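Q: I have two molecules that I believe assemble together. Could you output structure tokens for the complex as a whole instead of separate predictions?
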Amino acid sequence: MNPARTTLQKHAFFNNPHYRAIIYQLLLLLGLGVFFYNIITNTLANMEARGIKSGFDFLFSTAGFDILMSLIPYDATHTYGKTFFVGLLNTILVGVIGIALSTLVGFLMGVAHFSQNWLVRKLAVVYVETFRNIPLLLQIFFWYFAVLSALPSARQSLSLGESIFLNVRGLYLPKLINEPGSLWVYAALGLAIIAIFILRRWATSRQQKTGEQWPVFRISLFILFGLPLLASLLAGIPFSWESPVLKGFNFRGGITVIPELIALALALTVYTGAFIAEAVRAGIQSVSHGQTEAARSLGMPENRIMSLIVVPQAMRVIVPLLNSEYQSLVKNSTLATAIGYPDLFTVFVGTSLNQTGQAIEIIFMTMAVYFTFNMFISFCMNLLNRKVAIVTR
Amino acid sequence: MIIYVLANILPGLIDWLFISANWIGETQDDCTKEGACWVFVNAWSQQSIYGSYPTDELWRVNLCLALLTAIIVSSYLLDKSLRAKISVPLFLLFPFICILLLDGSYIGLEKISTDFWGGFSLNVLLAAASIIIAFPLGFIWALGRQSHMPFARSVSIVLIEFFRGVPVLALFFMGSVMLPLFFPEGTNVDKLLRVWIVLILFMSGYMAEVYRGGLQAIPHGQYEAADSLGLGYWQKTLLIIFPQVVKISMPNILATFVMLFKNTTFLLIIGIFEMLSTTQTALSNSYWLGGYAAEGYIFVAIVFWTCCFGMSMLAASIERQLDTVKR
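A: Yes, here they are, computed for all two components at once.
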């Protein structure tokens, strides 16, 4: 017999790591079981005592409250289920705006950190260090209560041209109205995008074969704007603008951006932008300096070194960091509830929960939604990450 | 162009902030000059630091803050061998000492209900008390995630991902709306205590991920060396692995703490009087209806900025120290 096995058998069975692991896990399972059993029995007893009926039936009953802003038709006679979607869309709206703008600001400021200009460099540092270290909620309040509520009233609005107005009630933009024939313009836009894709493929393969560069970017831009423009001229400009007009005490017509959305999007952009700038800086710093020197000795101009040599390599470090910044942006957008922007949290966890008392269902639904958002962001960023990762052959 | 913009904005800003600002006085009427009204901040300073804690009992809050400073400073000064024996138990006892002292009813002082606790001291103490408990708890979760026991591992993963993936505001709502349903009927758990529990769990999730980074950075030789010395699992983990993990994760731990500290302002939404909500209350006070929002927010911003910037500087300096050790 194997001598090692005999020594093993001499030990008591609870000293065997294998059995021990099983015992630990059984204890954990037992603990969790007791914990959940207690919670569930308590919850059921409490709900019975308070007269709360569990289940998702409330989603089909009339909500009876108005929502400040909705992307889909909604009024107080609609159901709680509909309020969920109104909130969901508003959350997606602020999330998309926040992610787009904060990426722009973050990349600008991150690259500015390496600028040749002393003032630009210092400005980037001051921006990052200031806004990263101030609580986000405070920044939201600052924009909402200190800046936006100090704007003039509707009659003395700040205006840009005759169609864009900014006042204490929000931002008023002209609205694009489609008239018959506008379909052709959209078709031209789609065609332009497809043409650009094909053109880029062709240009890349040509460059790889012959080494000659082709001004892809300028020509793409030309196609992107030229083709729809041509189509709209041919169709006799099938668009018109509906400008906001001052009637009585407020503006009518056009698109209204409520101040809550402006404050929230602004604060999220500035706050997350500072973090993204940090991520971009870290990414650029991780690219070996030899790369820049090599590019310089090849005679590349500075801005092309940044965009063609440094940033693509920096992306390997930046993308995973961006992933967590985007996730926290979406999670932080729940702070909308502090200023009353009607996102999912305000509408559903705030008002609907108060009215129905269905705490468990509503909170779990909301948590599930934010969980899904985060998984979706993770998924997209992982795809992007695979694209920027070092190709090992 | 930037110079032009700065030259246009800065003089006006400096003028508003300092030169034509009102510094002296007690009421709104003293704010006669054009600039900022710092009288407002001055008049509400006690509120914004201590909340509505009774003025005669403020020494208790101060004692707690002093104790926290003393523990942190002493852990720097003490010899390494004493640190584990003295500083660690002191840290772990600190939240409970604070509760005894601030509440008072258990140690023969006048009872002060948690409704009166508030202000910046609450932000600091709550953040400190949460991370102190999350420090070991997060490590246990991180160990669980690395464990070979499949059930323990999945439980840890679910816990960590849940508390990281959900907005902290949803967790606070869960703490204030759902937790009361979980307790047996008739038990009334204090709101602040529920918040504390939520903060601990939330923080543990983040700490566990920080520790995971640290655990992955420990060379495998360390485990093997500990094994060959005949150390058991807990000896190996606590004496060999944990100290090294804490050391290399220190910058990230500080960054996580800064996040937690900033997030304590979110408590405003569920009606806890931390610094930002005392400021909001002050702004809506009927004796101060003059739109002092900018002054109030700038004061809060300066306080938070100083703390957070200080901690991130500390983190950066630790990072630099670690860097030199490596080379």
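A: One point stands out. The first strand of chain A starts at residue 158 and ends at 160.
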